[in-house]
Amino acid sequence: MTAANGTPEANWLSHRSNPETPASGPGEDWVTPIVDEYLQEARDFRPAGAVHTHPPRILVLYGTLRPKGFSKLLAFECARILEALGAEVRTFDPLGLPVRDPEIQEHSKVVELRQLVYWSEAHVWAASELHGNLCGTFKNQIDWIPLNSGSVRPTQGKAVAVLQVCGGSQSFNVVNTLRLLARWMRMACVVNQSSVQKAWKEFDDDGRMKESSMRERVVDVMEEFIKFARINREYSDLLTSRYSERKEKEEKGRLLTQAEKETAKDAALENAKKEKANE
Description:
This protein is an alpha/beta fold. The chain contains 9 helices and 7 strands, in the order ααβαβαββαβαββααα. Strands 1, 2, 3, 4, 5, 6 and 7 form a 7-stranded mixed β-sheet that branches. InterPro entries: Arsenate-R_ArsH (IPR014063), Flavoprotein-like_sf (IPR029039), FMN_Rdtase-like_dom (IPR005025).
């Protein structure tokens, strides 16, 4: 898999210090010892009768353009934990992604983001709080992800975990907003979540999380998430199978786009007016 602009796959593996080594990172490796000692059950878990046997495909999004923004550092730690737990992880760099504009949907960063969304089976969203709520850098990424593309809904039924970083005292404004966004994107949000307060105190000079209750909570969230993601992908098609959509497919041969439905509705109204005028 290569990026739309021809850049190497390693761009999506920037959470690794060595692109060839999953879960690698700068500084001290605290992830591997924890996974080896405490998270074997989560690493080895497979739902009974699982059809999907490949590593879960996880897309990690973060909400900063700064090289060492705290939501990026948090997202990278999540990515490393998930790789140590057996997932295939890609991180998307929002630098260069234009502000949402339907006229530039072929922009290389837009195409790249949407490719990753289609590729993924589950997401991790790590965002920062600005002026009491979600920063625009993160929201812009979600705005570029279509609810549907033709009759395909690229996020429907996928699992997502939500985390946030705070510059000051702990807040849950952003994770609450992320849950709202996840619902609108028709995604299944895991119960656990993480809000890292005073994020500037929680990371060392290498960008790694220091040992603390904040770090333990992040591990908890990723442990729950990987198990949920494995279960959810087995049943997402069943859980999102709806009577109205099955009926539409049977009658129309496929799911219609909203534009097609509106056109059909307008045509029906116009025909009704003509029939009434001819009475």
